[in-house]
Structures are given as structure tokens and as C-alpha cells.
Amino acid sequence: MKKFSLFTAIAIFAAMAAPAFASCDTHAEDDQAVCASKCEDQFLKDQQGWTADMDKIKGNKKACDEKCGCPQNSKGL
């Protein structure tokens, strides 16, 4: 029973901690975070247009994230 409890605690901790390292932080003060934040801001701004070409906007977001070193930020696009 002790082994099962210990294993469960480790699994729960790993499940909670993994998403924290899955993407670049856009709230920090380093250059990568500032770049990633600008990409996100531009993506949201571009989506607001009535005639927005979503394929082009998504491509621009992916290219911007690649340039910043955060390709995982646009993985779900």
C-alpha cells in the first residue's frame, strides 16, 4: 500500500508540473518571453478583422514562434 501511495503522489506531481514546462512563458521579463508575448498579441490583433485570412494568420504566428524559439506555443493551430 505504501508503494502505491508513493507512486500515485509522484504521478500526480508529474501531471501537474508537466504543463508548466510545455510552452514558453509569456509573463517573464527575458527576451524570449517578450518575443513570445508579441507573437501572441499580434495573433490576437490579426484575428479581429472581418476579412481575416486565418491560414495566413496562423502561418505568421507559427513563423513568429519559431523565430522566438517557442514553436510549441503554436502547436495547436
Automatic annotation (TrEMBL):
<keyword id="KW-0732">Signal</keyword>
<feature type="signal peptide">
    <location>
        <begin position="1"/>
        <end position="22"/>
    </location>
</feature>
<protein>
    <recommendedName>
        <fullName>EexN family lipoprotein</fullName>
    </recommendedName>
</protein>
